[in-house]
Write a structure and sequence with these properties.
Layout (H helix, E strand, L loop, with lengths): L1 H37 L3 E6 L4 E4 L1 H7 L3 H4 L25 H8 L3 E9 L5 E11 L9 E8 L1 H23 L2 E9 L2 E7 L3 H5 L3 H4 L4 H4 L3 H11 L2 H4 L1 E9 L5 E12 L5 E10 L1 H47 L6 H25 L12 H22 L24 H15 L1
Antiparallel strand pairs: 1-2, 1-5, 3-4, 4-5, 6-7, 6-10, 8-9, 9-10
Helix pairs in contact: 11-12, 11-14
Length: about 425
């Protein structure tokens, strides 16, 4: 009886046990299905024959397909139009879920571009995992999870494009941009734009050496510049101009604009700045200063010329009066003529001074070299005669043996012609 009773209870107990197990399995599957359905990541399940058998709602949304359209597809289906990040095709046998199913190895963070039926390109990041039955080494299936990274990819592409444009701008710019970290030991250069090679001749590696900047300052500027750097920590910005030695050994004038960057706590962490080559500007400034000096000299020369003209007017007027009172054959007339000629040459000098000071228009004239030499012969002979007389070389009356005879241009000038020349000279002066 006891044996038969035991046999009668066992089937009912086993049935209840199986019922509880099946109910628990169904509940677990429902919970699993609810979790998978609620995930923001897309989930697809691939069986051993390489076909996709299941997917969640996020996978349908990301791929732009229904569950029926996803079901049965393989990674070799050309409708995926999958591409790599560089735009090249993504072969079906290299898809992460296919690799995991074939090799039994997981794949992580694989970037893939897939085209939706609408033609829109969607970028997804995929993780795949092989599934094994207990005691087996060959996967019976694989599962892949993925999420939409299109916006992130577009932002990264935009950032790379911006960085490329910035590199191009810096490469063509005359300003060298730099960054310097603030450490316990002081300032440590951390970055410099590549155009430092074109502007100063140094490569980036040389420019990042801790002592490079200070060691190439001009000796006359070094103390001043290093002393002013300390004000950067208090003022937050600094503008300097100094001479800096280029790679070829020559010094260039540099305009340095620096700004201090602080962390949220207000502590200084980094300095950003730019060097601009202003050598040409400095040279133009120096030329301008020289021009100002010459203009001042010109104004002084102009004032002297006007005062000297007044003296020459008196000298020429007196000489003309003396000539009018002397007869044509008297020896003194030649002396007065030389005085008058010297005054006229001095008038020419005053006109040159006025032209130099830009107070008179320069009017080129045609010169006769023979006349110029002839006009200089008599004064030169007189100077030689006076020099010889002072050394006792000549004897006789004053002006008899120590003077040369006047040339053809030394003849007494008619009074009317002399007055006309004097009037023309005064008109040119004014």
């Amino acid at each position: 009886m006891s044996g038969r009773g035991k046999d009668r209870r066992t089937p009912r107990s086993a049935a209840r046990t199986r019922g509880h197990a099946e109910e628990a399995l169904r509940a677990s599957e429902e919970r699993y299905g609810s979790v998978v359905a609620a995930l923001a990541e897309g989930i697809v399940f691939m069986d051993a024959d390489g076909g996709l058998r299941a997917s969640n709602a996020s996978a349908e949304r990301i791929l732009g397909l229904t569950a029926e359209q996803i079901g049965g597809r393989t990674t070799f289906d050309p409708r995926w139009r999958a591409i790599h990040e560089d735009g090249s095709p993504f072969p079906g046998d290299t898809h992460p879920i296919t690799v995991s199913l074939r090799a039994g190895q997981p794949c992580s963070n694989v970037l893939m571009g897939v085209h939706k039926p609408s033609g829109e390109l969607t970028w997804i990041s995929i993780n795949s995992q092989p599934l094994f039955r207990r005691g087996e080494r060959t996967p019976y299936a694989a599962v892949a999870s993925f999420f939409d990274v299109t916006e992130r990819k577009q932002a990264e592409d935009a950032l790379r494009a911006t960085q490329a444009r910035l590199r191009d701008v810096l490469a063509s710019s005359t300003a060298v941009v730099y960054a310097t970290k603030l450490t316990a030991e002081g300032y440590a250069p951390s970055w410099v734009s590549e155009n430092v090679t074109r502007v100063l001749g140094y490569d980036v590696r040389e420019a990042l050496h801790p002592t490079w900047w200070a060691s190439h300052l001009h000796a006359a500027d070094r103390a001043r510049v290093l002393a002013e750097i300390s004000t950067l920590l208090t003022n937050g910005e600094l503008t300097l101009e100094y001479r800096f030695q280029g790679k070829n050994g020559t010094y260039r004038w540099v305009h340095d604009e620096a700004r201090l960057l602080r962390d949220p706590a207000g502590l200084p962490v980094e300095v950003f700045g730019a060097w601009l080559d202003i050598t040409e500007r400095k040279q133009l400034e120096e030329q301008f200063h020289q021009a100002q000096k010459m203009e001042a000299v010109g104004r002084l020369a102009g004032g002297v010329a006007h005062d000297f003209n007044n003296l020459l007017t008196a000298i020429l007027g007196s000489a003309d009066l003396v000539l009018d009172s002397l007869s044509a054959g008297v020896p003194e007339r030649e002396e007065v003529e030389e005085i008058r000629k010297a005054a006229l040459r001095a008038a020419d000098l005053t006109r040159q001074l006025l032209a130099f000071s830009r107070q008179q228009v320069i009017a080129p004239t045609v010169l006769n070299p023979n006349e110029v030499v002839a006009n200089m012969e008599a004064p030169a002979a007189a100077a030689r005669g006076r020099c010889g007389a002072s050394h006792g070389a000549g004897a006789g009356p004053r002006g008899s043996e120590s003077r040369s005879e006047p040339t053809g241009t030394g003849r007494p000038e008619p009074r009317r012609q002399r007055a006309r020349r004097h009037a023309l000279w005064r008109q040119a002066d004014h």
